[in-house]
Amino acid sequence: MSAQINILIVEDEPLYSSKLEMQLEQTGYQVVGCAENSDTALSMIRLHRVDLIVMDIHIQGSYDGIELSEQIQNFKNIPVIYLTSLEDEMTFNRAARTQPAGFLLKPCTDIQLHRTIQLALKGGTSLKIDPEEQELVQAKSDDLFIQKNQTIHRVPFHSIFFLEADGRYCRIHSNLGLFLVRKPLKELLEILPDRYFAQSHRSFVINLSKIEKINLEDDVILINGKSVPVSKREKEQVLERLRLIK
């Protein structure tokens, strides 16, 4: 019954990827391939008929799992089930904006996986979030001006803790609250003063002056009581930038 359902696994942990492939095949699904990174996944999606994607959120490559899902949606309508070992609300909110067909915590049992796939193929578990959009009006001297409905909010640079990519939007976490603006993270980074702001991860820009602690073993930065990821590629740059702040 499930033999004709083609599933692509996107997972950068080989052992877990093999286990997942075995779970799916034992349940009767057809695994068309296992991609270790976003670039390989995109190539495989263009080469094969894929009915469903089971994808880890934190993968290697040009995009993480959430960003990859957005790229796929630009040219194919394929349901995505996210896998993650993290339970933080920040990750869930980012993932939910892409309207996934399901969400599973690793490791998952055979029955959890099978039921989630069944619901996904019936279109029964799509997560929908319709945030109130806010527009970045302009940046002047040391401030951002953000319009929300008929009100323009002044958000000083020094009030910003960190910025988080959220698809075509960007979340600005500040001591004035959370703002969601329709502008990519890369464009906002160009606006912010590079004296204090730096990219810690492909999806995060941090205010260096707001860092409370850096966990070098787990590759996370604590800002305002929240854990922000720092990639291995960006870690040395962040540490070097911290040494230059006076």
What's the main sheet like?
Answer: 5 strands, parallel
Task: Determine the mean pLDDT.
Answer: 83
How far from one another are the termini? Answer: 65 Å
Q: What is the rounded Rg?
A: 20 Å
**Structural category:** alpha/beta
The overall number of domains is 2
Looking at the structure, the CATH topology of the largest domain is Rossmann fold
Shape, please?
elongated
What's the CATH H-level homologous superfamily of the largest domain?
Response regulator
Strand content: 25-35%
For the biggest β-sheet, the strand order reads 2-1-3-4-5
CATH C-level of the largest domain: Alpha Beta
Give structural attributes:
elongated, 246 residues, 5-stranded antiparallel beta sheet, 5-stranded parallel beta sheet, Rossmann fold, 2 domains, OB fold (Dihydrolipoamide Acetyltransferase, E2P), alpha/beta, 7 helices
